[in-house]
Structures are given as C-alpha cells and as structure tokens.
Sequence to fold (508 residues):
Amino acid sequence: EPISESSWSQLGPDDALTPYEDVTTYNNFYELGTGKEDPAEYGHYLKTDPWSVQVDGECAKPGTLSYEDFIAPHPLEERIYRLRCVEAWSMVVPWVGFPLGDALKRFEPTGNAKYVRFETILDKEMLPGQRANVLDWPYVEGLRMDEAMHPLTILATGLYGEELPNQNGAPLRLVVPWKYGFKSIKSIVRITFTEEMPTTSWAAYGDGSEYGFYANVNPTVDHPRWSQATERRLDGGSLLSLFERRDTLMFNGYEEAVADLYAGMDLRKWF
Amino acid sequence: MVLMMSSAAATLAHPGRWGRSPALKPAVFALCLVPFAELLLRVAGLGLWGSLGANPVESIIRFSGDWAIRMLLVALAVTPVRELTGLQWLAKLRRMLGLFAFFYAVVHVLAYVGMDQLFAWGRIWADIVKRNYITVGMASFVVLAALAATSPKRMVKALGGRRWQRLHKTVYAAGALAVLHYAMMVKADLTQPLIHAAILTALLAARPLLSLRNRRGKRPAGRQGSQKGDPKLVHRS
Fold:
C-alpha cells in the first residue's frame, strides 16, 4: 500500500511507520479488555453495521445520522500522525479520515457551543469490558471548540488504507495528534455541543489527579506515575531498539500548528 | 503451583518417595527456570509462544515482575502446605523457591534500569523518590536482596538461628510490598493484583490458624507417612 504525501503529516526523518500488526494488536480500549492484546482478541464482539451517530446540544441542526450519511459529504484523506500515549510509548499511524471541523459545521453550532463532548457506544454485549466498573461508562471525551475546529483534528474511519479494525475504534474515532492518545475517543455514537467543559472519563477517575481535560503532550509536565520527558517509539525495531528512547516533543511535534490555541495559558495547571 | 500439585499427587501414591529422591531439587530447579528460558527464547525472536509484541521492553518487565511475585507466593506457600499435608520434605524446597523469586526480581529490576531507563541513574533516582509505586517496588527488592544475601547456611550460624528467623519473617513484608507495587502501577483494572493480594492474605492467615490447630493436638493427616520419609525434618518442626 503506497503512502501518499500529505501536507499535514509533518513527520521527521526518523519517524518510521509503526507496522500494521503492532498498530492493531497493541491497543488501549478498556471496553474490550484492559490488557494490550485484549481489544484485538475481543474486537469481534463489537458490531459496527448498522451504526448511527447522534449530534445534539448547542446547535441549530441536531439529528441522528446513519454512519453512511454522517461520512458521505466528506472526501477521505490520509493523515500520517504520531500518536503519543500517556504511558510514554508512541507510534506513527497512517490514518484515513476527514477534518472533524468540516463535519461539525454541518450541524451549525450556536454561539453557546464552547465545547464538544464525545461518547463511545454503551453496550455490555458488544463491549464486554463495560461489565467491569473500571471507568464510569460510557467513555466520554471532550475538546474545546477551537481545538475541535483545528484542521489537524480529524475523525478517522480507517488506517493503512483499510477500514478501521474494531480494536482501533471502528467505525468512527477521533484523532487529535498533539494530545495524549486517550483523548482520541473510539467508536463514537454521540457528539454534543456544550457550553460547559464536559467531564471526561479519565478526569473523573479516582481523585482526579490522573489526567486533566487538556492532556496536551508536554515533556515538561509529568504524569504522577511517569515522566513524560522521553518516550519509546514502537516501530517494529530490532533487538537494539530495546535500548533506545527519544525525547518527547512539545505538543507531540505539532507545536507550530497548535501552540497559538494555548497562548497565555499555564500548561502546568491545565495539564 | 503445577509443580506442587503434581508432586503432591505423586507423593499421595508413594508417600515420601519424592521427598527422598535425589532428583527432587534438580527437577524443581529446572522447572523454575522454564519461564526464564521462555523469556530468552522470546527475546531471541524464536518464541514458540509468540513474540514480545509491539512493546518488547514492557513485555520483558511485566513478564519478569509477574514471575517474581508468583515465585514469592509459591515460596510463601511452602510452610502452610507442608503443615496442611504433612509433606515435610517440601521444606527442603523453600530456600530455592525464595531465591528464584529474587532471581526474577533481579531480571525485573535490570530490565527497568537497563532497558526502560537506559541506566540514567539520575532519572532512576528521581523515579524512586517521586513515584510511589517504584519506591514500594524497590523497597520490596531491597528486602528480598537482604534475604537472599543471608540465605546460605553459614549465614544462619553467623546471625544465630533466632535472629535469622526474625529477619526472614520479613519475606511477608517483601510479598506485601511487591503486591502493593503491582496494584499501584496498574492504571484502573485491579483484578490481577487483587488475586495476588488474596493469595498472600490467605497464606498469612494460614500460619497462625495451622499452628493453633497443631497446638490443639490435631495432627495433620499424612504426617505418619512423611515421618518415615524424613524424620529429621519432622523433628525440627
């Protein structure tokens, strides 16, 4: 599968694609199990056809659309992005999708729409991990309106030129490349425009010290259990790669494109 | 566990036979090395059980950590199981099992220090001071190291039996710290560490309960059989 050039890829010379095998067998998708291999093993429980997406909240044209109608107006493009997990590993993934902002505009958000809230499907049969109270289900994520409208932010329907495998969040998932991976919510069924900052799953977890709403990749702000200064790139490397780490880049290397969004904000406080 | 179940089954058929067999210790030794051999095979990419996955360093650290805790729990189970079954010769395996727990803990710590942190001592020290799960894990490792260092028979003499025994009771602290380390490291799903904690608690509770039962004079079944097998050990208990 040839990889097309994309002006949004912004990759460096040492950013090799993570092999398809690794992208699709090493996943955090707790609704399909908390082990990294679980989502690939139990992904078949999730049925993605039929699928619909409800859009509501502060917008002029709310509605529930079938997956097909939801994606129909948008030409699909390839975006090769770095994906930085909060667990200090990273991948490079060739996504297929379209800008989230293009989709959101169709529903005509009102002036009250300050945030966008996303919800994963809630279904104990299809997502057996939801039988355990690991998190407060369904999984909820959110973006500020300007983050959601940013051209780097996409909704993905595929990777490596193919439809998304279920373990990667089929049929429709968010990809926000300058934020930690858990912000990129999977298997979306609901999108809500809100005036208040939505309470996201990890921010609501435990005593709230786990993750904040913003979760921008930032090598200078540590997670309680991990330094975020460096990362391990998972690119299917050799034995030698066991002894390699690389420096984590501010905003995961997308600083030029997104730093303006956070001008004047204390990123230690809003982590 | 498999080892203990199969030995127990064999001994039920032939009481004392396994306990006297010169092959017992070498066989258990070899069995304890099986996970390490599997790890080496996986690292070499020859794994019959699959590769190391997308994140090999994490796999190595998890694998060795899991086995350190399992070995520690097996070593801790020796005394209660011996008292419960009367298989006195099990006591001969306790030291070796404990040393294997330490061995897997060494692999675990080396993988963390060398592969995860690339021997960046400043960062490692910052990790130990700052991150509670690493502090707790290192504390467990230090206790295990002290017990391993004092495990040779001449150390029992050097320290005096009583003091040595008191020191080696801290193996329970090492176990508790290891399980706590695991629980603190896990992001949200506590199933595995809770299973380990339950086993550890059962083993801890078994000791006073069993000694209470023994003091009341109810001798465990099978004691007669094993007395023939290894009178010296029965005498010592």
